[in-house]
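Researcher: Quick one. two chains, 476 residues in total.
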Amino acid sequence: MREIFKQEMEQLGEELLTMARLMCSAIEKATQSLETADLTLAEEVIDADSHIDEIERSLDERGVSLLARQQPVATDLRIVVSALRLSATMERMGDLARHLAYVARGRYPEVASTGRMQQILQQMGQQAVKVARQVVELLETRDLNLAEKIEADDDVLDRLHRESFQVVLDDDEQLTRQQLVDAVLLGRYLERFGDHGVSVARRISFLVTGDLQNAVVNTGTMLGLKDEETGGKQTTRQ
Amino acid sequence: MREIFKQEMEQLGEELLTMARLMCSAIEKATQSLETADLTLAEEVIDADSHIDEIERSLDERGVSLLARQQPVATDLRIVVSALRLSATMERMGDLARHLAYVARGRYPEVASTGRMQQILQQMGQQAVKVARQVVELLETRDLNLAEKIEADDDVLDRLHRESFQVVLDDDEQLTRQQLVDAVLLGRYLERFGDHGVSVARRISFLVTGDLQNAVVNTGTMLGLKDEETGGKQTTRQ
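Model:
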């Protein structure tokens, strides 16, 4: 029984890895499509998202079926439940990459941003890609140092996000209304992507170590603190 | 065994209801704090959010413990898993209400928006409150007609969100940079709140009817279609 459970858990792990790779490819292409106004790449991201959604459904089925047949208890049970949440979060990361691609497609043949804002958004995009690649590597290698690196990279992402607000709120920055709207939305999507990456890293740490206390920090609370930093409050009053 | 399971499911249902009521109160106060620049109300929403987070953790514990002890299979198992997701989504709705409150607090003693944008955001807020109240009522009464009403109200929310883009993109609209940023973020928060409301309504429908096919539509895909309408693409090029 235990052996079968272990095999099934490995299959679940394989499917999570496939999902992570697709999610990583989505954010790589989406950020590049934004940088270079590449319509083909943007369309690829948009089209490929349904594949990520399919895997999420398959993972769901597999997880619930595993619960029904193997009836794991204690830590094993928590691991399966955690894997299901991991999958939901990665699906959401794929969605956010698709949102970036929508903006790239909507502005084609122009790029969505220029000047200082373009620089910041490109850096944010690079951080998001870094987070995604490390999530894949974390699943592949189970090297828990990567989880810490993901948190550090997300901190950089948050700092860049705050910088982006300084630019949009600066009247001296020449920005069209569309560029302003895009900057706010793109910044938000990328910041959320990083937050989800951190949440995923913590869950994977739990899957590896079984250390619930350390890994399953309440995501809402964790994200909440960050949202306060970036959302409405710290953007300066005019 | 079945009787105990039923009782435990009822307790889970009670906790979901408590959570829904807190989430509803949060959006009511948050939208009012935005309308009237009421700092006290905004602070109340921000402080109360940790309570919603606590209930989510408690529900998680209860759900996982129920899975471990009762080892439900088939539909019962899916119901428990679905309840856990419902709880995660309502926690997120609480977070979004808190984001609104952050903006209200950040702009105090001013209101965040004026003129046409204020009207649209107020209407969006009213729709969000309507969605939340109906979610509570749906949990209380299990009247599935409410699920349809929630979807219709979310459609109105999406329409208003598109209107909000027309305003921010209209150079003739006198808006400060801060008002532009706030309008984009508030619109996004409220639109997401509605989407989550629809997702919750579908899951509750499933909890009531056991009709998986109808209720557990992939949330990501569902939301994705909406995001395309509102995110980057349909906002007119400049």
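The helical segments of chain B are 2-36, 39-70, 74-107, 115-141, 145-169, 177-209, 212-215, 219-230.
Researcher: Thanks, that's what I needed.
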